[in-house]
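Final report, Chapter 2: Outcomes

The project's central promise was a pipeline that accepts a single protein chain and returns its three-dimensional structure in a standardized token representation, suitable for archiving and comparison. That pipeline is now operational. To close this chapter, we reproduce one record exactly as it appears in the project archive, with the input sequence first and the structure output second.
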Amino acid sequence: MTNMHPYLNFDGQAEEAFSFYKSIFGGEFIALMKMSDAPGSEQLPEEEKNLVMHVALPINENLILMASDCVPSAGHVLNKGNSMYISVSPDSRGEAERLFSGLSAGGEIEMPLEDQFWGDYFGSFKDKYGICWMINFGSYK
């Protein structure tokens, strides 16, 4: 079986965002490495040494949310957009409400969480870090 995991890029906010996600989903980081941990990091500008090289937060036994910060001195540029969403399929309506409420705090709601014509309880939003999420209780349990 091949596993697929969402990998996010941030502009210096990876650790803050993942601490926020950890407060919603729970669990512990299985990785949190800084750019200063990498060989050759002494060449990095001082302000880039504390950027996140890699962070990983297990959401459940089949899904690990991962990320890193863009490194400007390496030519990395973050382009925020809606070309990718993280779709979460909780086990209950109550869990859908908890996740939607927590993750959307301080963000922009696209579609409020409500019963939809196709029969699911669905909503979507962009969180305060610019990451797009869909919460869908129903078809994809």
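Archive annotation: The first strand starts at residue 7 and ends at 10.
This record, like all others produced under the grant, will remain available to the consortium after the project formally closes.
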